[in-house]
Design brief:
alpha/beta, Zinc Finger, Delta Prime, domain 3, 4 domains, five-stranded parallel sheet, 27 helices, 8% strand
Length: 559
């Protein structure tokens, strides 16, 4: 076959050609320059990152006519034979198919002989973790003290499976995944030299799909070239490779952040119609939420998998979102993605997750709550606020004096304490927390004595004055006669002692109707005071901040 795939055609031939492994190449070049070359190396790392290519470059560097040199010429016979895999002094062994102790014995027998034509004999054992335990044991002594001019290079993707006795006899180099921008840069260079027309957006998606493997990226390019030739359209490339269009995932994120579940479901349906599996969609959505969280917390530079345009777009999209909200979305999606992978109905499971994410209430950061509390405290301090007694009008409501700084009232502290204890405010009451209200006493009585409680509700007013509980009724009324009964008063004394934890004296007072009519009625005064309290600016701000509502306004009574 005359066609040579891109991964072989553009295999690195020198240390400078290696992509994304700078510290390894620099260390090896220094070792070769100074002549301090170890007798055994272990190259570990994920697939397609240059382990075998680096091993061949090391072989060329020590056997080159100009060598040992960190810059092999790639023109001499030794370099050409190594590059073509024809050198008798560079033996590449696939440990996956040579796992037994007999294969290692054969190596031990052959290393006794001098190199055929080069300066050194190099053994490159690929996927070395596949050797059996007996084979490793047989290799130990030879690996520790090989003959002169013999070099072992062991390559593996699963270094944890190699015995520590082998690891301790080798210099270890850990190769890392190639960054997306590095892969994209290399693809741009290769496609330019191959005269292939392809959009940068397509190259970015291929680079992301390769997951850090330059060889995988070149394999995807080979597939596109075989299908479309040298003119590759973006949409066609995504359809052929089965790659999810990133714009669909981004649109889904926008639907989630805008709390529009219908839009998110519609985008999912579009992806399914294009042949994208729900499981794959869930994976990409989880990955994108990870990008969003990293960009929000660490900035754009923390992400190497996205283009600068995508990073800027995400940054604008997340401007008004809190880190807590994004963290919650990511955690829910992580849990949902795991369930989707196990589900027999992945699309329905993903739809449920999208609805949950799109209807999630946004989380307010603690710092914002503290700032609002500080502003509230300042407003409380600058506006004299008092609930007042309904039965004794205060000077605060009779006139409008110049506001003076006043300490935070107990009722305001109650609101602040609720937030500090993470209790959602459902009521905002203007009553003192230091004493029990007589208005609370009536429901207490009704819970055990409904008839007596109903009579108390019909009374003109109930006031606690120190150790006396005054029940005020209209003169010559049915209620007045009822409360004067001895059995009624005995029951009241027992209930007041239980509720107020105090032995109160029951006193029945009567007021005449004409006197109540002549002056401004107490009921009207109560209504006026309640209205003033409702319109209090501090109370309004508290309601706006905490999303509460005024359920009831209760008076404070001096004991």
């Amino acid at each position: 076959m005359s066609y040579l795939v891109l991964a072989r055609k553009w295999r690195p031939q020198t240390f400078d050609d290696l992509i994304g492994q700078d510290y390894i190449t620099q260390t090896l070049k220094n070792a070769i320059s100074t002549g301090k070359i170890a007798h055994a190396f272990i190259f570990s790392g994920p697939r397609g990152v240059g382990k075998t290519s680096t091993a061949r470059i090391v072989a060329k560097a020590v056997n080159c006519t100009n060598g040992p040199t960190p810059d092999p010429c790639s023109n001499c016979s030794f370099c050409n034979e190594i590059a073509e895999g024809k050198s008798l002094d560079v033996i590449e062994i696939d440990a996956a198919s040579h796992t037994g102790v007999n294969d290692v014995r054969e190596i031990i027998e052959n290393i006794k002989y001098l190199p055929t034509s080069g300066k050194n004999k190099i053994y490159i054992i690929d996927e070395v973790h596949m050797l059996s335990q007996s084979a490793f044991n047989a290799l130990l002594k030879t690996l520790e003290e090989p003959p002169p001019n013999v070099l072992f290079i062991l390559a593996t993707t699963e270094v944890h499976k190699i015995p520590v006795t082998i690891l301790s006899r080798c210099q270890r180099y850990d190769f890392k995944k190639v960054a997306v921008d590095k892969i994209k840069e290399q693809l741009t260079s290769i496609t330019s030299k191959e005269k292939i027309k392809i959009q940068d957006e397509t190259l970015y998606i291929i680079s992301q799909e390769a997951d850090g493997s330059l060889r995988d990226a070149l394999s995807l390019m080979d597939q596109l070239i075989a299908t479309f030739g040298t003119d590759i359209n973006h949409e066609d490339a995504l359809n052929i490779l089965g790659i999810l269009d990133r714009t669909l995932v981004k649109s889904t994120i926008e639907g989630i952040l805008k709390k529009d579940p219908k839009f998110s479901i519609d985008v999912l349906n579009q992806a399914v119609e294009k042949g994208i599996s729900p499981k794959r969609f869930a994976e990409d959505l989880l990955r994108t939420l990870r990008y969003a969280l990293l960009i929000k917390t660490c900035g754009k530079d923390a992400i190497t998998e996205l283009s600068d345009e995508d990073k800027t777009s995400f940054e604008a999209l997340l401007k008004d979102e809190s880190v807590e909200t994004l963290e919650t979305l990511f955690n829910l999606m992580l849990e949902g993605a795991e369930n989707i992978q196990r589900s027999f109905y992945p699309q329905m499971a993903l739809e449920l997750i999208l609805i949950k994410l799109s209807t999630l209430d946004r989380i307010v950061p603690v710092e914002d709550i503290i700032k609002k509390l500080e502003n509230l405290s300042k407003n409380i301090g600058s506006t004299k606020h008092s609930a007042g007694r309904f039965d004794e009008p205060t000077e605060t409501y009779k006139s409008a004096p110049t506001p003076k700084r006043a300490p935070i009232k107990p009722e305001d502290k109650a609101v602040i304490n609720r937030v500090e204890k993470n209790i959602e405010p459902t009521e905002i009451e203007t009553k003192s927390t230091s004493s029990k209200s007589t208005e609370d006493f009536i429901p207490f009585v009704k819970s055990s004595k409904p008839v007596l409680g109903k009579r108390l509700e019909q009374a003109h007013e109930i006031i606690r004055d120190g150790s006396i509980l005054k029940i005020i009724c209209e003169s010559q009324s049915v209620q007045s006669d009822y409360f004067k009964r001895s059995e009624t008063q005995a029951t009241l004394r027992a209930l007041t002692e239980e509720f107020f934890s105090d032995n109160l004296k029951i006193e029945i007072q009567e007021v005449s109707s004409p006197s109540a009519k002549n002056s401004k009625s107490t009921i009207e005064e109560k209504a006026e005071k309640k209205e003033k309290i409702k319109n209090d600016p501090v109370l309004k701000e508290a309601i706006e901040i905490f999303g509460g509502r005024v359920v009831s306004i209760k008076p404070n009574h001096k004991e």
